[in-house]
Amino acid sequence: MTEPATQTQTVEEQDRPGIIDAVPVRHPWRYVAIAVLAVLALMFLHLLLFNPAFNWPFVFEAMNQQVVIQGFIKGTLMCTVLAMFFGVIGGVILAIMRLSTNPILRGVSWLYTWFFRAIPRLVLLTIMGVLGILFPLSKGGLSIGVPFDWVFIKWLGLSGDWRFYSVDANTLFSGFVGAIVGLAASEAAYMAEIARAGINSVDKGQMEAAQAVGMSRSLAMRRIVLPQAMRVIVPPTGNETIAMLKDTSLLIALPLSTEMFFQLSQIGARTFQLFPVFVAATLYYLIATSILMIGQAYLEKRFGRGFGTKVKSDKDKAAAGLQAGGAK
Fold first, then answer.
1. Is 17 part of a structural domain of the chain?
2. Which of 77, 157, 181, 281 has a CA between 20 and 30 Å from the CA of residue 48?
3. Do the Cβ atoms of 292 and 238 come closer than 8 Å?
4. How far apart are CA 50 and CA 201, in angstroms?
C-alpha cells in the first residue's frame, strides 16, 4: 500500500531543481559613492575646525551672553509657544467654520485663509511694526469705547469722550504683542487647512453615529472626530511648530529687541564678527529643532496607536508570513 506513494514522492523529488548557486549582484559604484562622501565629509570637517572665519571661541562666547540666552527663552521660545497656541486654536475654529453648513461662516473662513496665506510673514510682521499709523496717538490711539463716536457727536449734538480705554498703537504693535498677533494670525490660516484635512480624514459615519446616540454636533466634534483627526493633524503641526521656531528670526523686522537673533545681530554689528554670530544662531536653532523633532516623533507614536500593524523583528515577520500562508 505504501509503494505507490513512495514512488510518487521519488518522482516529485526528481522533478525538483537542485540547490541554486546564486551569485550576488555586485555594486562597485556604491563603494565609489561612499569614498566620495567620506572625502567630502572630511573636507567639511576640516573647514569647520581649521578655517579661522568660524572663530569658535567667539561663537561660544556669544552664545553664552546673558542677553542672548534671555532672548532665546523669552523671545524665540516664548513667541513660538504663544504663536502656535493661538494659531492652533484659531486654525481649528476656522476649519470648523469652513466645514459648517452656514454659508456665511464658510465664506468668512475662506476669506481669512486666502488673505493671510497670501502675505509672506516678513511682509506681515513689517506691516505690524507700522500698523500704529492707523490709530494715531493724536486721535486717541487704539481705544475701546462707543464706535463711530463722531457720528453721535455730530448727529445728536452730544459731547464728551466716548473712549473707555486707550493705548499707544505704535508701542503695542511694534513690540511683543505685535509679534504674537502677526505670527498667530498667519499660522491660523495654515492650521485651518491642516485641521480641515484631518477632520475630513475621519469617516463621516463617526459623526452620524455620535449624533444618533444623542450627541450634539459640537460635542461629537470635540469627543469623537477631533481625537481621531489628531493622527493626521499632528505630523504637519509638528512641522509648522519647527517652522514657527525658525520664523521668529523674522521678528527682526519689527524689530523685537528681546528676540535672540536680534541680540546676536547687534553683537555682530558691534564687534564686526557677523559670521560667527550667525553660526551661533544656527547652533541654537539646530538644538531647539532637534528637541522638537523628538517631541514630534513621540506625539506621532502616541496618537498613531491602533492604526496599522508594526512588526518588531525578522522573527516576527517570518511567523506572520507562516501564519498567513497556513490560513486557507
1. no
2. 77
3. yes
4. 52
Q: What is the pTM of this model?
A: 0.76
Longest dimension (CA), the chain: 121
Residue 42 within a domain: no
Q: Quick one: pLDDT at residue 23? A: 77
Polymer length of the chain: 328
Report the domain count for the chain: 1
Q: What is the extent of the structural domain holding 288?
A: 56-130+174-304
Q: Find, among 282, 206, 299, 190, the residue nearest to 245 by Cα.
A: 282
Report the half-sphere exposure of 253 (CA within 13 A, side-chain side).
Answer: 21
Which residues in the chain land under pLDDT 50? 1, 309, 311, 325, 327-328
Residue 122: predicted pLDDT? 92
- CATH number reported for the structural domain that contains residue 263 in this entry: 1.10.3720.10
Q: Where are the beta strands (DSSP E) in 28-156?
A: 142-145
C-alpha grid cell, residue 173? 504693535
pLDDT at residue number 123: 92
Residue 100 is predicted with a pLDDT of 86
Which residue from 126, 150, 155 is spatially nearest to 139, judged by alpha carbons? 150
Q: Which of 133, 130, 165 is nearest to 146 (CA)?
A: 165
d(CA 215, CA 208): 9
What's the half-sphere exposure (Cβ side, CA atoms, 13 Å) at 230?
16
Mind listing the pLDDT tens digit for each residue in 211-246? 888 888 888 888 888 888 888 888 899 999 999 999
Element housing 58 (H / E): helix 56-63
How far, rounded to the nearest angstrom, does the alpha carbon of residue 139 sit from its chain's CA centroid?
A: 40
What does each C-alpha distance from 132 to 2, 174, 175, 206 come to in angstroms?
A: 101, 8, 11, 47
Residue 213's identity, in one-letter code, is V
List b or e across 290-323, with b for residues whose CB sees 16 or more CB atoms inside 10 angstroms: eebeeebeeeeeebeeeeeeeeeeeeeeeeeeee
